[in-house]
Amino acid sequence: METIEINNKLKINYIYNENKITSFSIGFDAGALNEEGYPLGTAHALEHMLFKRTKNRDEAKISSDIDRFFGFSNAMTNYPYAIYYGSLLPEDFEKCLDIYSDIIKYPVFLEKELKEEIKIIKEELREWKDDNDKFLEDEAFYNSFKNRRIKYPIIGEEAQLDLIDTSALYCFYDKFYTSSNCIITISTNLNKEKALGLIEKYFSDFNRKSKSSTLINYEKNIPGIFIKDDLKLNGAKIKYLFAISDLDKEEIFAFKVFDYLFGRAGNGILYNQIRTKEALCYDINTEVKNEKGIKLYAININVSKKNIDKTMEIINSLIEGVKSKEYKTEEIKKSIEKISFLKAIRHEKSVLLCNDITTDILMETDDNIYNIDSNKIRDTLSKVLKDGTIQIVY
């Protein structure tokens, strides 16, 4: 990979590959975490509205052009970032840049169209809350914190959505959709000079360099057990949350190695004990949520209501046990190799490679492999696996 800056401080990552597919991602440090002073949901609403109208295209034209020239395209707003990405044929790269540069640089927000889109976003919010896994996470985040933005869904809350107007959209756009706040990554068989020349052609006038940084408040989670028991689910869902915000980059890597041994599906410590030996549940998994503004470790379990207490008792015992476990050098080495291999498999899909590079830079995460040992893992676990928040819904 080669990284350059064109004359307006816009960072571009170029990756050559021999595939017949070109992929790209355009990312901004402009997620829901940046909404202080704005109605909740502004960042996500802006993502929607960029596809409604530009100075050169209406919604129908934007949709037809994307459908014509892209094999795949999408956009996503997360807590720490917003990203726009797609895959296409190399010969269509210039046309696709024309479309997306228009969307990014020249949006037009009309109140009537915004009101229409807010209705759609409210439907999206209702569907979001009907998803029991998302509801579990929302409840866990809500009960874990007093003030952090992640206490509320990325999409926002219905009452807050009604407060979003075009003035808020333009203000948020002007503040955060700047060239110095943007990363573009491309994976292509086009030579570097041609690919970068085309990007510069369409983005050379995207030169607003101001960047307003948002101070991230890593408020400690509130420990305890929280129960929501009126959903009338057939079973129960449990989420454990532990803070990883105090870990440095080497400790994060050590924790990821531990998580491979502890939480992987099929043969991890949790899976072997809870599912294979005890037959208490069908689905159990873990997540290292190292994104900026989140920084949490999650354990997720689907279990029958009658097995909630027994399952939690075993998990709590396993958590205490892994803190003092001796991790063998060979199993650490194999875990590191497997983590690298799984990432390589994921990056066989070039659009995921582009997205990961773009978001890693935006979130300032580290892709280095560190030389760690059993002591490093145990020391890291002693920082993390304590004072957890446990959310139960059924």
What can you see in these coordinates?
The protein has 394 residues and is an alpha+beta fold. It folds into 2 domains: 2-203, Cytochrome Bc1 Complex, Chain A, domain 1; 224-327 and 373-393, Cytochrome Bc1 Complex, Chain A, domain 1, CATH 3.30.830. The protein has 14 helices and 11 strands. The chain has helices at residues 42-49, 59-69, 93-105, 111-130, 132-144, 158-161, 166-176, 192-203, 249-263, 269-277, 308-324, 329-346, 350-363, 374-384; strands at residues 2-5, 11-16, 22-28, 70-77, 82-88, 182-188, 224-228, 236-243, 281-289, 296-303, 389-393. The strands form 2 sheets. It has a 6-stranded mixed beta sheet with strand order 1-2-6-3-5-4, sandwiched between helices. A 5-stranded mixed beta sheet has the order 7-11-8-10-9, with helices on both faces. Helix 9 (249-263) packs across helix 12. The longest helix is centred in the N-terminal third of the chain and has 20 residues, at 111-130. The radius of gyration is 22 Å and the shape is globular. The N and C termini lie far apart (47 Å). The mean pLDDT is 95.
Uncertain spans, ≥5 residues at pLDDT below 50?
Answer: none
Main sheet: strands, sense, barrel: 6 strands, mixed
- Taken together, the total number of domains comes to 2
- Per CATH, what is the topology of the largest domain? Cytochrome Bc1 Complex, Chain A, domain 1
Element order: H for helix, E for strand:
EEEHHEEHHHHHEHEEHHEEHHHHE
Mean pLDDT: 95
Shape: globular
* CATH architecture field of the largest domain: 2-Layer Sandwich
- In spatial order, strands of the major sheet run 1-2-6-3-5-4
The top level CATH class name of the largest domain: Alpha Beta
- The CATH H-level superfamily of the largest domain is Metalloenzyme, LuxS/M16 peptidase-like
Helix content: 40-55%
